Amino acid sequence: MCVLILFKDVSKRYKNGTVALRHVNLEIKDGEFVFITGNSGAGKSSMVRLLMCEDIPTSGDLIVNGSNTQKLSRRQIPKYRRQIGIVFQDFRLIPNLNVYDNIAFSLRVVGRRRREIVRKVNTAMELVGLVHKARVYPNQLSGGEQQRVAVARALVNNPRLIIADEPTGNVDPSLSVEIMNMFLQINRMGITVVVVTHEQHLVDQMGQRVVSIRDGRIISDTSWEKGDTDEF
Amino acid sequence: MSFDSFFFLLKSAVNNLFRNLLLTLASILVLVLCLVILGSTLLVVDNVNVFVEEIGENQVAVFLDESFTQEQIDGFMTQLAQIGNIEEITYETKEQALQNYMESLGDDYFFENPLEADTFRDSVLFKIQDLTKYEQTMYEVKKLDGIANVRERKDLVARILELRETVAFLSICIVLLFFFVSVFIITVSVKLSVFSRRLEINIMKYVGAADYFIQLPYFIEGMLIGLAAGTISLFVEIYLYQSVLFPLFADFGMFAPVSMSANMPFWLLFFLGAGTVVGIIGSVFPVKKYLKV
Ligand SMILES: Nc1ncnc2c1ncn2[C@@H]1O[C@H](COP(=O)(O)OP(=O)(O)OP(=O)(O)O)[C@@H](O)[C@H]1O
Ligand SMILES: [Mg+2]
Fold it and tell me: For residue A77, which of A56, A55, A53 has the smallest C-alpha distance?
């Protein structure tokens, strides 16, 4: 399997002096499922921001699917992001669009054609089990359902990689497992999945690779134990 | 860009307009006000220029040596023309001068002893093209041979210059002021629209929409507001000019006011063009801020 994401000695220091990431080295292979855990303020969202190219490392390199995020021009960034699907803790669904249109939105704004949109949106809705709610508006959905819409929206453009930042943070704890299982299912389709969470108990019961960070440093990675990586 | 995309962008723009309908209408209204003020300013300037042309006629009269032969007179006129910056050179005989004078008085005047043509003199009348070079040109004129006397209307020239400068200055101020007000109005309107759509813009950034795709609906929105205001302004201006400004200038009586309908292509272009330009300029700034992610 080839490497999809490579953090090479990445540090991130914000303008106000806060150091969010310190010399992070991390390799994620194509098709992997990885949990990133850590306490509040550990630097998890900072990693996501770097992955989304919202921000660039202060030092070190972040290479995703062969492109160094620091070297992307303004015009290349949108193209870069199209290979990544993102899911947020707060869903970020557009309230005045129904489920179908919310999902279709991410295809429409990248200039896809009608036919392709219809086909892809229907597939994505089937995948998250929301076909029967296509004409429903976000405020008529439960938290879990809203998050599934958000996942469908992230999936619909056939990304290589799905990143979820605390996807279970705003849903009923009893639904957390269900959502995590959905990510596992997506991973089985061959899509690399990175899930950020601080719900340790949830992570423990999933049996996937877990990268723990604290104060901006990686303190453990279950792949070390398996001996997959020869670094460190 | 595909037709589907174009349709999507247009729909977004129109949705924006209707989502903040009251604000849209208010900005169109204010914009109409601005454009009508701009248009009226241009019309006033136009009329002032016509007026100045009119009163500026026969600024200078040169009385020649009475002994001049026709040949000498012709020679003088040629020399005069060669000086440059002089236009509308005419030769007026004393009979014509008398007639013109009588006409300028109107029919109400009655002289007990009719005026004689001999009271007047043959003269060469002309006008200085560029009044700012008035002194210079007149200096050259006075160097010519055979001039018995020169009648200048220096105070009139000074007044015309002053009037022109004042009108030019005021109109530039008004145009600039209302141009900025118009851009500001659009900016506010689009800014609110962008603000109410910041979630959409945020998601567009994350799913990889191109910057131009994010900006276009607001461009279109600004342009539509501008176009709507431009169209309305054109009709308002036509009405305002016909019913208020034109009669006002006509009552003044010293010149024939310009006609708006004679210049309709220009005015159509002016109002629609100004509206569109203002609309586009006004919608550039508000979106920029949200493009960063
Ligand atoms: N834009 C910013 N400017 C300055 N400091 C920031 C910024 N964003 C985050 N930080 C700081 O960087 C550190 C890491 O923040 P980050 O958001 O990555 O943490 P996190 O692991 O996602 O935490 P949480 O679980 O609470 O979401 C924190 O100390 C935070 O205060
Ligand atoms: Mg976070």
Answer: A53
pLDDT value at residue A232: 44
Residue B124 is predicted with a pLDDT of 86
Domain B57-152 classified CATH 3.40.50.1460? no
pLDDT at B103: 76
Give B82-118 pLDDT, tens digit per residue: 888 888 888 888 778 788 777 777 666 666 677 777 7
C-alpha distance from B273 to closest chain A C-alpha (Å): 29
- Chain B hits for A160, Cβ within 8 Å: none
Residue A112 lies in a domain: yes
How are strands ordered across the β-sheet holding A19-29?
A19-29, A3-13, A59-64, A67-68
Give every residue of chain B whose pLDDT is below 70, as ranges.
Answer: 57-58, 106-112, 293
Number of domains in chain A: 1
Q: Please state the pTM of the whole predicted model.
A: 0.78
In chain B, where the domains are located: 3-54+159-291, 57-152
Contact B209 A78 (CB under 8 A): yes
Q: Is A58 in the pocket of ligand 1 (CB under 6 A)?
A: no
Does residue A122 form part of some domain? yes
Candidates A88, A109, A139, A162, partner chain B, best to mutate (most B CBs within 10 A): A109
CA A80 to chain centre: 14
- Looking at all shown ligands, the one closest to residue A49's CA atom is 1
Interchain pair B5, A108: CB under 8 A:
yes
Chain B residues within 8 A of A114 when measuring between CB atoms = 4
Distance from the B187 Cα atom to the nearest Cα atom in chain A, whole angstroms? 23
Question: Mean pLDDT for each consecutive 10-residue tract of chain A (232 residues)?
Answer: 92 96 96 95 95 95 95 93 95 95 95 93 94 96 93 95 93 88 94 93 89 95 68 45
Q: Which residue of A has its CA nearest to B217?
A: A109
CA of B191 to nearest chain A CA: how many angstroms apart? 19
| Domain span holding position A101 | 92-158
Residue A18 near ligand 1, beta carbon < 6 Å:
yes
Q: Domain for residue A116, yes or no? A: yes
Atom of ligand 1 nearest to the CA of A19: 12
CA distance B138 to B129: 12
Which residues line ion ligand 2, judged by CB < 5 Å?
Answer: A 45
User: ipTM for the complex?
Assistant: 0.91
